[in-house]
Every structure is written in C-alpha cells, then in structure tokens.
Specification:
The chain contains two helices and 14 strands. By secondary structure, it is of the alpha+beta class. The chain has two domains: about 100 residues, no CATH class; about 80 residues. Strand 12 and strand 13 form a beta hairpin. It is elongated, with a radius of gyration of 22 Å.
Amino acid sequence: MRLRTAALTAVVLAGLAFAAGCSEELAGQQQTLGRAELEKQIKDAVAKEVGKVPKAIRCPGAIDNKEGARTRCTLIANDGSEVGVNVRVDVREEGDAADLVIKVDDKVRSGPKTVRRPKVEKLVKAKLEKSVGQVLKGVRCRSAIKAREGARTRCTVVAEDDSEIGVDVRVDRVERTGAILDIELDDERSK
C-alpha cells in the first residue's frame, strides 16, 4: 500500500498574515530603533498575535524613527521555515510616539529543513488510520527525515492487536509548504 501526505510547515505560520498587520509603539523620541530591539519587538508582536513565539527574527539593521521608514526582515519558525516580514514606521500625529506596522508575508519563502520524528509518526499514523479505517495503537520511527527529495526513514506501525508492520517513509518531493511524504507498507505483519 502506498500513500502520500504533506508535512506542513509550523503551525506558527498558519495565522501570520495579519489582515492589516500589527503594531508596536516605539519608545520615546529615540532617533533609531537598534536591530536587536527591532527583532525583539517583531518577535513579541508575532507571539502576541498568534500565540506562538517564532524561533528567531533577523533584520538587516536598525530602523529610523521617522514616518515611512521601512525595512524587510525574516521570521524563522521553529521548524526552520522562513517567511518575509515588512516593517514600516507610522507616526499618527506630530510629537506622538511612532508605531511599527508589521506585516508578515502570506507565503513561506523556504520550507523546513527536516520533518521531526514526532511529526513523521503523527503524519504516518493519521494517513494510515484514514486509509485503512481503523485506529492504530501507535507508530515508531527511527529518525527525523530531511526535507529533500529521496530522503528516507523507517517506521513500525503497531495495530490494536499488537501486531506490527514495517513502513518505509520517503520524501517524494519538496514544495514551498513542506515535504510530500510517500508511505509504503511492508507486505507482511509480524507478531
């Protein structure tokens, strides 16, 4: 039996395209916001908006605290996938503190570098349960799988009656949304 499933990028990316972006107030009348503080404010704003903290934010440098100043940063999700982030300074009225308007891209720039073992196990279990129409006791995989075409790992599926069957998991192809896994069951069960 051969099945295909997609290993999607981190859940953190699922809600990041904020409708109008989000904003963070810049403190006081400082001339620029340094790179480290800019990255921290973006990370905090994303965590507040979607409830998950990204692994990192990378910005090329500081941003000027003046109306219309812009920069482009990169959000790195916990699975290693990357998404672009546009940042703009907005001053509502003269003398007011400036806001950072943060807009995360709708599309992932690069997918995850690996699909972690628990994720592979979860995907294999869900796909097999759906295709055979019965609940499985569990799935154990030897390792994570690199998100590159042809990468492989070996798993064992445990049925409710404690019988086991081997499964080969191979990356069929890698798309922007993640790795597409090809799942192939062995021909025989073991006890």
